[in-house]
Amino acid sequence: MTIAVYRIDPVTGTRTQVREKHTVKPAEVPDATSVLPPCSCSRCVGSGITLRTKLAEVNARSRGAL
Fold it and tell me: Is the pTM of this model over 0.70?
């Protein structure tokens, strides 16, 4: 796969190259699944609180209930 970045002038429509063409080597073995990997951010790792609970807490705060 080859990637290049261009800037298009909205008035004239001229194309100016921003980054040189770069060829990317494809993965040797494609992933066999379309499932996203689990989140590894510091908020999610090791936390027993689910996203639904966090959302309920934020909503309660916005209503002034907490």
Answer: no
